[in-house]
Amino acid sequence: MAELSTKHILGIKYLKKKDIELIFETTERFKEVLNRPIKKVPSLRDVTIANLFFENSTRTRISFELAEKRLSADVVNFSAAASSVKKGETLLDTVNNILSMKVDMLVMRHPAPGAPIFLSRHIDANIINAGDGTHEHPTQALLDAFSMREQVGDLEGKKIAIFGDILHSRVAMSNIFCLNKLGAKVKVCGPPTLIPKHIQHLGVEVSHDLRNTLEWCDIANVLRIQLERQDIKYFPSIREYVLRFGINKKLLDSLNKEVVIMHPGPINRGVELSSDVADSDQSIILQQVENGLATRMAILYLLAGKRGS
Q1: Quick one: 69 and 143 in the same domain?
Q2: 176 and 280 co-located in one domain
């Protein structure tokens, strides 16, 4: 049986193309499982997984927890807000205490970029990065790319545009790495202040023109403005952002093609997307959520096969 080349999912940049293809093949199988009357399988019956969330999360945490339970794993949920982290305990001490209870795998979200990489050098358990600061969010990129393939087929040569707050987005970074490995053409679009300097070195084009970029792309992956990560003002006002970079139905209907609309959530309705776009037939936002569950089941299943290696 084919297996992953790594025992952790720390970031897309550490995966090979064949790892991504294997995850997609396994995701297809788990999508079939999720459409059965009985959605639970015993694949991870003897595996204990701890979900460590040092940052708020709704979709990702619930998606992982449900994926783990669908695979029959034993699940431990950890929230930093109610833990000894508040008393000054270090990350490594916190994790080692949890691992001493015989936990096999960790799913971790942390505000510090590189935290899962640091941990992987000090512990034996498999680690899945559920988002580390503004660095990477690999499982989101994998479910996004899987969803894109369902819509347009093989991504080789397809035109994918990522819109919005690229500077503060770990989703954008992981998407860029993943789409590059799959041969897609990638363009980022947003205000100059929200595009990282030298991002062209990652093999992407840069645009500040919303309409032109929508005319160019096959798929638009629209990101949230992350006001909670912005310590200074990056644009004059939300109203001005909406006028220049907000996507509404009137704009989409005026294009000479139909563009697939994606969003990793949560959506700021009326800011990056109007409600009539988010809820339209062109939007695959809810399919992304469904695919997220199957993708995370696939990753957990494949990593369980790497335990002890």
Answers
A1: no
A2: yes
Q: Is residue 4 part of a domain?
A: no
Residue located via tokens 């992407």: 204
Q: Closest Cα partner for 131 from 214, 235, 61, 220?
A: 61
Provide the CATH number for the domain around residue 191: 3.40.50.1370
Q: How many domains does the chain have?
A: 2
Residues 236 and 187 in one domain: yes
**E strand or H helix at 239, and its extent?**
helix 238-245
Using the Cα atoms of residue 38, residue 44, residue 48 and residue 53 in order, give the sign of their dihedral.
Answer: negative
Q: What's the 3-state SS for 194-225?
A: HCCCCHHHHCCEEECCHHHHHHHCCEEEECCC
H helices, E strands: number in the chain: 11, 9
Strand spans (E) along the chain = 48-53, 74-79, 105-110, 126-132, 159-163, 185-189, 205-207, 219-222, 260-262
Say yes or no: 272 and 155 in one domain: yes
On whether the CB atoms of residues 265 and 238 are closer than 8 A, the answer is no
Is residue 173 within 8 Å of residue 162, measured between CB atoms?
A: no
**Are residues 80 and 119 located together in one domain of the fold?**
yes
Q: pLDDT tens digits, residue range 35-54?
A: 999 999 999 999 999 999 99
Q: The domain containing residue 180 runs over which residues?
A: 138-284
Q: What is the pLDDT of residues 107-128, one digit of tens each?
A: 999 999 999 999 999 998 999 9
Q: In this predicted model, what pLDDT tens digit does every residue of 149-197 receive, in sequence order?
A: 999 999 999 999 999 999 989 999 999 999 999 999 999 999 999 999 9
Within this chain, do residues 156 and 232 fall inside the same structural domain, yes or no? yes
Do 145 and 278 lie in one domain? The reply is yes
pLDDT digits (tens, 9 = 90+) for 194-230: 999 999 999 999 999 999 999 999 999 999 886 544 4
The answer to whether 289 touches 86, Cβ cutoff 8 Å, is no
User: What's the distance, CA 16 to chain centroid?
Assistant: 17
